[in-house]
Design brief:
- This protein has 156 residues and is mainly β.
- The protein has a single domain (23-153), classed as Porin (Beta Barrel).
- It is built from one helix and eight strands.
- It has one helix spanning 2-20; strands at 24-35, 40-52, 55-66, 69-82, 90-102, 109-120, 126-134, 138-148.
- The longest helix has 19 residues, at 2-20.
- The N and C termini lie far apart (40 Å).
Length: 156
Amino acid sequence: MRSAAAAVLAAFLPLVGHAQQLTATELSLGAAAVVSHRTFGGAELALARRAAADTRVALALAAGTVAGRAAARAQLTVQLLVNSAARSGLGLYAGLGAAFNARPESPGEGFLAVLLGFEGAPGRTRAWYVELGFAGGVRVAAGWRLRWFPRWWGNR
């Protein structure tokens, strides 16, 4: 009996190993707005890495305006993904990190960043995303995400 259980476990270990090592590199392009006493609006570019199946580290850089003046934002978050390998349907994620605002001739400002997001088919190579959170005000972002997975995943 023990040898049969060991054989079954040995047969499934490679599958578990692959599931745990589903890494990805992601590039996101979209728009972001932070509504506060000085509202920011602009274009956002993000680069992220899924170091493990259900976690992602993301750096989002945005350029836009605040009160008609040029401004920039940077946000670095660690995110927890739900349904990270789903090839259809929605994926949910939550993140925590830091954000920084910069404007010419003004001191920079740092903030705690908290977000909740939804993305389409997180196990596919491209899909939309929408985020809502707090980072110096109420932050909303939306756009398109491209992903590169390991070859064994099939890149569908």
